Amino acid sequence: MQDGLATPLASQNETDIALDMLLSRASVSPAAMTEPAPEGLDLNDILDAAMRAPDHGRLRPWRFLTISGDARHRLGEVFVAALRKREPDAADVLLERERTRPLRAPLVIAAGVHVDPDNAIPEIEQVLSGGAAVMNILNAAHALGFAAMWVTGKNTYDPVVNEALGFHAPDRLIGFVYLGTPNETAKAVQRPLRDDFVRDWSA
Ligand SMILES: Cc1cc2nc3c(=O)[nH]c(=O)nc-3n(C[C@H](O)[C@H](O)[C@H](O)COP(=O)(O)O)c2cc1C
To answer: What is the pLDDT of residue 4?
Structure first.
């Protein structure tokens, strides 16, 4: 499977399972997550799925940092420093919210893109490729039974956070994926109707 080109699924049953997985994915908020996070071979599979993102010019623009355990406290301090710079008078309760933000899930993947502004491939395509890689992370996590949610918020666009995580402009963060295991409060989300968003232009 790893090196295959278009590897056909072996049976109708496998096709159905793969499609069911895609058609049932839903974000699970960190509030509905618990331990364990994906690790080991599961985490490798999730990150390998990211490597399958479409990528114009083979730029491989996506970059990921896996942040678990005590490193989440360090990330929280980065969020605090960023808020202090944005809002020097920020209330303690808001600073505490940033400090504990990464602790809501057992694993946080910081996702970013290495942007080559001089490349013929437009910058937006480089960023889109990073977004597609994150989508594959969400799908792979779901396929393995894990909970995942992509969040941005102000931290993603804050230069203090970007610098602390090694994303020096024009490289940039595109978000944080929170990962864990769904708890019993995780709920199914209503999906929009396809026909409201799709029209057959050939008609
Ligand atoms: C680029 C991007 C950034 C997002 N940032 C946030 C965020 O900061 N906070 C949030 O609550 N949801 C955010 N979301 C939305 C959630 O990831 C999720 O898609 C939403 O809760 C709907 O759930 P669903 O994925 O099951 O449709 C973001 C989604 C995308 C694509």
So the answer is: 57
In angstroms, what is the span from residue 42 Cα to ligand 1's centroid?
23
Give the pLDDT of residue 8. Answer: 67
CATH of the domain at 112: 3.40.109.10
Q: What is the pTM of this model?
A: 0.95
Q: Whose CA is nearest to atom 16 of ligand 1?
A: 150
Q: Is 190 left (phi over 0), alpha (psi -120 to 50) or beta?
A: beta
Nearest to 50 by CA among 148, 169, 190: 148
CA 150 to ligand 1 centroid distance, Å: 5
Atom 14 of ligand 1: nearest residue by CA position: 151
Parts of the chain with a pLDDT under 70: 1-9
Domains in the chain: how many in total? 1
Residue 121, domain member (yes or no): yes
Residue 135 lies in a domain: yes
What is the distance of C-alpha 113 from the center of its chain? 12
Distance 166 CA to ligand 1 centre (A): 24
